[in-house]
Amino acid sequence: MSEPMETWLTQEAYDRLQAELDERQGPLRVEITKRIQLAREEGDLKENGGYHAAKEEQGKSEARIRVLRHLIENAKIGSPPAKAGEVAQGQVVTVRFTDGDEERFLLGSREEAAHASIDVYSPTSPLGGAVIGRKVGSEVTYKLPRGERSITVTIVATEAYSG
Q1: Can you tell me the distance from the alpha carbon of 28 to that of 64, in angstroms, rounded to the nearest whole number?
Q2: 3-state secondary structure at position 75
Q3: pLDDT tens, 69-93?
Q4: Which CATH fold topology does 8-77 show?
């Protein structure tokens, strides 16, 4: 079994996640609890739509809190160390397809994708997994998600992501 991929976050992404966690554990949690209490006071819970909606929202919020806590506790801040000319998480990668088209993307986490000004591919995505650890100039082939065909790209460049 392979080691789990480390999650690297920019300081900005870390700060956004921490702020979301603080909001969910504080004001949002209090607000949802109040809505549940008010709905309980209306009586019959079996057919009380407001109660069920608030309970569902509470469950989703608590699940997100668990995810945020895990991310914040286990994420590394900054960019992973990378060897010169080698693709690593936290870098902007430029690849050229066989038809000559080029694509630039950030190799990062989905938490970065929410606020990035560039497309973000996960290191576990087909393209991300194919290029990570490879050197500029390498030609790599990867299968599309459905596995019906393969695509070949050449790694043209890597650069640090500046947000």
Answers
A1: 12
A2: coil
A3: 998 888 878 766 666 788 988 888 9
A4: Helix Hairpins (1.10.287)
- Nearest CA-CA partner of 13 in 79, 100, 82, 104: 79
Alpha helices in 42-137 (DSSP H): 49-74, 110-113, 126-131
Paired tokens of 94: 């430029």
- Residue 65: the pLDDT is 95
- CATH topology classification for 91-160: Chitinase A; domain 3 (3.10.50)
Q: What are phi and psi of 118, to 5 degrees?
A: -140, 155
Give the residue with greater pLDDT, 33 vs 4: 33
Domain boundaries, the chain: 8-77, 91-160
Cα dihedral angle (79, 81, 82, 83), rounded to 10 degrees? 160
Cα(75)–Cα(81) distance, rounded to whole angstroms? 14
Instruction: Report which of 60, 68, 66 is spatially closest to residue 32, judged by C-alpha positions.
Output: 60
Looking at residue 99, its pLDDT comes to 92
Core vs surface per residue 58-86: b (16+ CB within 10 A) or e: beebeeebeebeebeeebeeebeeeeeeb
| Residue 1, pLDDT score | 39
> pTM of the prediction?
0.62
* Other CB atoms within 10 A of residue 122 CB: 19
